[in-house]
Amino acid sequence: MMVNKNEIRSMLFITLSNLGDIILTTPVLERLHDEFPSAEVDVITGAPGRDIFEKHPAVRQVTVQQKHRDLGERLRQVGRIRSKRYDIVVDLKNSLIPLLAGAKYHSFFSGGSGRAPLHKRDEHLWKLSVLGIDPFLDNRFFLPVTDSERQYVDSLIDPDWKRVVVISPGAKSHLKRWDARKYARLADRIISDLMCRVLITGNEDDTETVTDVVSHATTSVKDLCGKTSIGALAELMRRSDLVISNDSAPLHIASAVNAATIAIFGPSDERRYGPLSDKSRVIKPEVPCRPCEAALCRRGAEAGCITDISVDKVLEEVKKLLY
Length: 323
Hints:
- The chain is built from twelve helices and eleven strands.
- By secondary structure, it is an alpha/beta fold.
- Strand 4 (88-91), helix 4 and strand 5 (105-106) form a beta-alpha-beta unit.
């Protein structure tokens, strides 16, 4: 399907719900904006996406999609979309909306020729090939940072610090969370052995995990849980010497700003969700059953293969990236 660029005045971009997933879709919006720079874009996204997409120069309106909607609301949404008469609809949720929207061009029959790349960012980009767009001409992220967020990060980082390491120990699934006490011991070693400053980050959902890390650390780590916006965290990571994270949204924020990264993985597949920074390492358990992508582990409710990863193993990789 070749698109007549002269016909494109407006586009609807439907993206995902969770912050990490949303970040991995921002290169799709960037490619669309490159191809159709004069077109206005409306975005349907999850709540974490509002702060990102409202700052995009091409975006006209951002709608936050509620997770639980009855049939009536779904039909009303289709009616609202049809009334906008979009020229292109790109839907990364793989719903029927592109077919129902009435747009001349859409991503419903997407996938391109050949096998789609494994990493989720590239899988999303691949959908553009059905529109005749080269999906990989540019794969940059869009993650805006305001002047006030930069100034806030200025206040967090002492210019006399030699090295700054950011640790993000949270994750939605307990199987993706490396043990908080191991993170605490790692932070202690990074501070005492490598003379770095360690900042622990997370959102409100990570409060218990971060508190556990901070309380078990014997050195002076800085607790920034709940104290950084998305943009401020991106700027903090960009200016740090190293980011250490589980498979979670902060990992993808680190990729978006090309921060040196160590990613600690459990059951999920690092080929699909791993770091994309130029300098990065993945640390994973050497067990034959992974990556299983399972929500529960046969080892039991609390255990998981990520528990096999030692502090010494992570510290070894820290040294390689810092020196």
